[in-house]
Amino acid sequence: MEISKRIALVAHDNCKKDLVEWVAWNWKSLLNHKLICTGTTGKLVEATIHKNLDEGDGIKHNILKLKSGPFGGDQQLGAMIADELIDLLIFFWDPMQPHPHDVDVKALLRIAVVYNIPTACNRATSDFLISSKLVAEKYEPQITDYTKYLERITPA
Fold this sequence. Notes:
The protein contains 6 helices and 5 strands. 41% of the residues lie in helices and 13% in strands. The protein is an alpha/beta fold.
């Protein structure tokens, strides 16, 4: 991982307000990193960051906006994790509401664990993660060796 991290930001509908408030609180720290968001969350994050930037600075912060979660955005993020294109995942998910794409959410969280991606699923953990000194340093995550798992079925 380089000093500038690739941070994925995702929020379920009932948690978008919380994520926007978190982004508004941490926008200066987030400017140092590339942000990747799903659908509507990306539009809200972009508006929040641009609102906080001074117009005279000439600073633009581009955010990669993927599809909305139910339309494949969670799966796009999962693919980016598998391709080692995501360094951190911040996912404000709503544990109290069923979601039509729950299987995609579970798959996204699973792939983040498989690839040892630091993952925050609530504001407190996000605060700890973004304030870690490791966010501003190079870091080599230790990837679990799944060789034995991959070799469990050998062709005859």
